[in-house]
Amino acid sequence: MLKLPKDFLMGGASAAYQVEGATKEDGKGKVLWDDYLEKQGRFSPDPAADFYHRYDEDLALSEKYGVQTIRVSIAWSRIFPEGTGRIEPRGVEYYHKLFESCAKHHIIPFVTLHHFDTPLTLHYKGDWLSQEMLDAFVDYAKFCFKEFPEVKYWITINEPTSMAIQQTVSGTFPPGTKGRFDLAFQAEHNQMVASARIINAYKEMNLGGQIGIVHALQTVYPYSDSPEDKHAADLMDAFEDRLYLDGTLAGKYNPETLSLVKEILDANNQPMFKPTDEEMAQLDKAAHQIDFVGVNNYFSKWMRAYKGESEMVHNGTGAKGTSVSRLHGIGEEKKPDGIETTDWDWSIYPKGMHDILMRIHNEYPLVPAIYVTENGIGLKESLPEGATSDTIIDDPKRIDYLKKYISAIAEAINEGANVKVYFIWSLQDQFSWTNGYSKRYGLFFVDFPTQKRYVKKSALWFKKLSETHEIPE
Ligand code: BGP
Questions:
Q1: Taking Cα atoms as reference points, which of 175, 184, 172, 215 lies closest to residue 434?
Q2: What is the ipTM of this complex?
Q3: Where along the chain is D-galactose 6-phosphate bound (predicted)?
Q4: Residue 441: inside a domain, yes or no?
Q5: What is the phi/psi pair of residue 392, to 5°?
Q6: How many Å separate Cα 108 from the centre of its chain?
Q7: Contact 15 CB / ligand 1 (< 6 Å)
Q8: Residues of the binding site for D-galactose 6-phosphate
Q9: Measured from the CB, is residue 426 less than 6 Å from ligand 1?
């Protein structure tokens, strides 16, 4: 039987906008999603899981079911409603109460400073493409470091790549721009610089905690052994993984990575981003001080050569087999026969988790530790008829998924990777940015009309693992 190390922590993850609800309460400023979602009319972020009012209940459940740590994010616009300047004391107070409740329930908070929720004022100024946004972000981060000394684990930014790609390449995040690889690379570079500036500032403040960044990392494989398919996989890897591993964990961009990036941009007739010496110095300094990298891994990708125009169709409803991803200058995603997928077309491939952990271990020796900051499976689930508060929701597919992925993590640890923490996405069912409420990930079921919580069987499985560190059958 595979085992996890004795000091390994088991956690549950969330993000402010996906759980809190209360988007108009206590002086919170608007974020990029508010008007966008209202206009789209598909789903509302209110009340989501109503975590703003029910955090204590969720933390009590967490304690009961062996969740030792939770990943939450601070909603920047609760504290600075306009992104900068005026401070809203009710927002500050809310996070103090949340961290107090964590302490009461013996739960360690890992706190993300930016999880896809740029304040609207700064979004309109260019979001991650604007230097004003970067400066405001550094000020906000320093404020949080001083205000919340009880937090000992900080995450600068969640998934710079998925934010940028979805904002300006696939157009699934606001403002919904498509096909602008140049803007995505520039925004990603800027996020890495912002993250580096914050890491360097945090270390200067000598607060004794840990700080790192979280990346979305999908392991990319070629569809076949042909040189063309292998090259498509290299391009996709540079686009989604390698540039960010280089920038944040090596502190410099490998020339080979940059030439792959340039090839993508040239094919799309778009200009290359131009880092300054000062920015590169910040990246280098931060890579030598970063305490951990957070890995979000759910699925892997297979690429084959493709010469046509870009075409992307997002499966946002769970209608299996409807997603399309063909990127001009990169390639086409195509899963080999026999690869299992979820209803949202995400592959289930635990080896991809193992391989990404080993790659970081082998190729990025500066980073001291790896934390799996998100992993889990989105499923369609409903409350059985006649459910009472004791009803336990049966979710065998989630247990199976967790067993396979956590075993893959245990194997990587046995091979030398320094993986210390695992966060399931997600702690409780929550709002999914482009899929609404039908894609459930939680250990705890949330009945969305009433926001009442129910335990899932996976929570019982999780508790056993957390207590014994043996991966239960
Ligand atoms: C990650 C995000 C999370 C979360 C998760 C699941 O990329 O950091 O915020 O949403 O993916 O994705 P989805 O909600 O699209 O299924």
A1: 172
A2: 0.99
A3: 18, 115, 158-159, 296, 432-433, 439, 441
A4: no
A5: -110, 125
A6: 18
A7: yes
A8: 18, 115, 158-159, 296, 432-433, 439, 441
A9: no
